[in-house]
Specification:
Chain B: Belongs to the URM1 family. The structure holds two protein chains of two kinds. In chain A, about 45% of the residues lie in helices and about 10% in strands. By secondary structure, chain A is of the alpha/beta class. Chain A is globular. The model of chain A has no long low-confidence stretch (mean pLDDT about 85). Chain B is globular, with a radius of gyration of 12 Å.
Chain lengths: ~400, ~100
């Protein structure tokens, strides 16, 4: 009798084997097989300093080169965010631009920081801007600042070269934006989309064809799960892929999507770069779907180093084949229509039937036809927002455009 | 025994310094990094312990390097400190 699988019945073998970190070869670098390693990645791959730095540079340029999207002298808007990924990105770009080999980067970068640090005091915000300017100057780059509150409230793009745009009441203005109570999940989603829209608008103003965002692998993995939880599964390939091409003239790229935080933090440390740091705020992981999913992915990654890679690689295979009706007015994502009623439409139909006052003079068939006609006249109109944005649409300012 | 500690990436905000050399109190047993963490948290941390520690190790998101080597290659908290060792604490949590 076949005995394959019997071993699953006895105890621990049914679980994933635990990798004993003390068994990892710590004597030799994984790549050159000679030098003593100085960093351990993914709990199993050890590298010496030269191989690690070379590998990191190579990985960055490989992803950009493979896509073949950026042509020489194209202007690229590089989004600066406080933390290790942006610091590493500054260094990687400067390093690539300074090369004299065929692998030299040939695009023209423009750095922009969207300032939304409203939890900091006025003096802390000014210090942060001053530190960012110092960091950019260290890499011989100039950086421009956009006040997020100006964009959200007035759709205004005023780019500054220093911290003069900072006003004491910026934080209050953001709070006063919502007259109705909005939950944290929707608020975060609203700000995320507004930030992306602001960057696209800035890119258009600066005539940039591309935007680099400093999302790393754990951001991509948690964004994928967040998209599913918010009913934006159809946008996964755009939101978490290498290239988000939902805008016709500006493509948003994620050149760091295959890096993890440890990799970039060590890259900075070994290059003696100290990123700008801000005071930490206590985040309640249960206050929003975004926080919860980020916590879930990060903690799972601690125990199982393949978690993020698995989620990212699975996400890369997901595409939507449903007919697109149009673009969402807010996030510019696709608006779909199924041939059958989806759950949202079914709920809408149910609500209509239970609240509709029928005309008793009509025959049963006429009453049915009447309510069906009413339903179809509402539901089969092309929706202005995708499902996810329809949940926050009541808070959106109408810009008057169709 | 003297140990050099460096703080970066935002850990400097937790300890109020970027670099410090400490004279560790003499002990009958050798000092491990795990014991150093608890000693630092008790004596020199300027904020609550949960911002630096989790259990008997550092909080996830804080990286540790001992003499320019990832501490994961050196048995993490069990590494036995030697005179003039340099321990770097580097946070990945202070972004925004």
């Amino acid at each position: 009798m076949c005995s394959i699988g019997n071993e699953l019945e006895n105890g621990s073998e049914k679980y994933m084997p635990h990798i004993d970190k003390t068994q990892v070869d710590k004597q030799k670098c994984n790549k050159c097989k000679e030098a003593t390693p100085c960093i351990l990645l993914r709990g199993k791959d050890s590298y010496c300093k030269p191989c690690f730095l070379l590998n990191t540079n190579h990985k960055f340029k490989l992803l950009l080169g493979k896509s073949k999207l950026i042509r020489p002298r194209d202007k690229v808007l590089v989004t600066y965010e406080i933390g290790h990924p942006s610091t590493a990105l500054l260094h990687l770009i400067r390093d690539g631009l300074n090369l004299n080999t065929p692998k030299k980067l040939t695009f023209d970068p423009v750095f922009v920081f969207v300032d939304d640090q409203y939890h900091l005091s006025l003096s802390e915000r000014k210090d942060v801007i001053s530190n960012i300017l110092t960091e950019a100057a260290h890499h011989e780059f100039k950086i421009k600042f956009l006040s997020f509150v100006d964009w959200v409230l007035y759709n205004r793009i005023i780019l500054s070269d220093n911290s003069d745009y900072i006003k004491a009441d910026d934080g209050d203005k953001i709070v006063s934006l919502f007259t109705k109570k909005m939950n944290e999940t929707n608020r975060k989603e609203f700000f995320n989309i507004e930030k992306k829209n602001a960057l696209i608008a800035v890119a258009k103003q600066l005539e940039c064809k591309f935007i680099f965002k400093p999302d790393i692998s754990v951001d991509v993995a948690s964004n994928l799960l967040i998209n599913i939880s918010l009913g934006k599964g159809s946008q996964i390939s755009m939101d978490t892929g290498f290239c988000d091409d939902r805008d016709d003239s500006v493509k948003v790229l994620s050149p760091l999507r295959l890096f993890d935080m440890k990799e970039l933090a060590f890259y900075n440390l070994l290059n003696k770069l100290n990123p700008v740091a801000i005071r930490q705020i206590k985040v309640d992981p249960y206050s929003s779907a975004q926080n919860l999913l980020k916590k879930f992915v990060t903690e799972l990654q601690e125990g199982y180093p393949a978690t993020v890679t698995t989620v990212v690689k699975t996400g890369d295979k997901l595409v939507s084949d449903i007919k697109v009706l149009g673009k969402c007015k807010f996030c510019k994502g696709p608006v779909f229509k199924n041939s059958e009623l989806n759950s949202e439409e079914s709920t809408h139909f149910s609500k209509l039937v239970s609240t509709y006052l029928p005309d008793r003079d009509m025959s049963k068939q006429d009453r049915f036809d009447d309510i069906k006609k009413t339903f179809e006249s509402t539901v089969y109109m092309t929706p202005q927002h995708c499902y996810s944005c329809s949940k926050i649409s009541e808070y959106l300012l109408d810009d008057g455009s169709d | 025994m003297k140990v050099n500690c460096e703080y970066g990436g935002g850990c400097d905000l937790l300890f109020g310094t970027k670099q410090e050399t400490y004279e560790l109190p003499s002990s009958s047993t050798a000092w491990t990094v795990g014991e150093l963490l608890l000693w630092l948290a008790e004596k020199h941390l300027k904020t609550t312990q949960e911002n630096f520690l989790q259990g008997d190790s550092v909080r996830p998101g804080i990286l540790v390097m001992i003499n320019e080597m990832d501490w994961e290659l050196l048995d993490t908290t069990n590494y036995v400190l030697k005179e003039n060792d340099t321990v770097i604490f580097f946070s990945t949590l202070h972004g925004g």
